[in-house]
Design goal:
With 317 residues, this protein is of the alpha/beta class. It is built from ten helices and 13 strands. It is globular.
Length: 317
């Protein structure tokens, strides 16, 4: 059996999956992402790959190609992550070179994690020639396929839409240090701080002292908390503005939305985007659908990238 590897490096978890040419997964492993140093993150990736191969019952040098979907920013030419804003203590994470050594193969592709998600949607889905994969998770990111071509950009940083400026006037500070970015309002790591900033003395069940997280905000809104509902409405507003920018930039037929924030709160996240999008889009409004029900969209996409050498295109006939 030809053996392929997919790796998902996120700010919260590292995942790896080993599979065959059809994308069927034979072994997998997941662990927490270290936040101390770049070397620690690289070592966590290597350990995760070893464990996934062991779970599949194959040696690491049996892998003929690997795909990596990673948080950014990237320097794809060097095969590294550089200064990831969601891991503030980490400056540089080497990926391609250590994996090349471990696996004894030069067939390694490195993509932004959302680009890997888009490749997976193309490989495993039916409508992949014009699509955007949007992740609303610890951070916000996107990957685009236009007319069948994967958009990668200089150094692999095309469609870094989490750093789109949605609020140029009163912009909140993003993890990258700039103001007004989409991620500063709608990332899972930012929603609770945004709630605290919006609070103006209203009665609420939320504890706005650093103990609240995004899940509690969405749960309180669903339970009828008026303030929490106002926060969720604001998040929906910024998400719709961000998705409209994606539509105007890439003209997708489909916007496939994954990531933990969307996965755990589908109606509260996707509903406002669908409702508001027509008011912001001057061109054709795409279908907006939820994906990533099991949280493995990126690692599957990375596996598809390995199988197709980074394109997601494969003739199964």
């Amino acid at each position: 059996m030809a053996t392929y590897l997919g790796v998902d490096l996120g700010a919260t978890t590292v995942s790896a999956a080993v599979g065959d040419r059809s994308g069927r997964v034979a072994g997998a492993h997941r662990r927490a992402t270290p936040s101390s140093t770049g070397v620690a993150v690289t070592e966590a990736v290597i350990e995760t790959v070893r464990e996934a191969c062991a779970d599949a019952g194959v040696a690491t040098n049996a892998v003929i190609a690997a795909g990596v979907g990673s948080m950014g920013p990237l320097d794809a030419e060097e095969g590294v992550v550089v200064d990831p804003p969601n891991l503030p203590g980490v400056d540089r994470v080497a990926l391609v070179s250590p994996l090349r050594t471990l696996l004894s193969t030069d067939r390694i592709t490195l993509h932004n994690d959302a680009v890997a998600g888009a490749i997976g949607e193309r490989f495993f889905g039916d409508d992949g020639d014009n699509l955007v994969y949007l992740t609303l998770s610890t951070g916000v990111g996107a990957g685009a396929i236009v007319d069948g071509h994967v958009c990668t950009g200089w150094k692999g940083n095309a469609a870094e839409m989490g750093h789109l400026t949605v609020d140029p006037v009163d912009g909140r500070t993003c993890g990258c240090g700039r103001a007004g970015h989409w991620e500063a309002y709608c990332a899972g790591s930012a929603i609770s701080d945004y709630a605290a900033a919006l609070h103006d003395g209203e009665s609420t069940a939320l504890t706005l002292d650093g103990e609240t997280d995004a899940a509690r905000v969405f749960d309180a809104a669903a339970a009828g908390d008026d303030f929490a509902a106002r926060v969720v409405d604001r998040v929906g507003k910024w998400n719709a503005i961000g998705v409209a920018a994606l539509v105007h930039a890439f003209a997708p037929r489909t916007v496939a939305v994954g990531g933990g924030v969307a996965r755990n709160n589908p109606e509260q996240v996707l509903g406002p985007i669908r409702e508001r999008l027509p008011a912001h889009v001057a061109t054709t409004v795409p279908e907006v659908r939820g994906v990533d029900a099991d949280g493995n969209a990126v690692v599957r996409g990375a596996l598809a990238s390995a199988i197709t050498d980074g394109t997601g295109e494969w003739d199964r006939s």
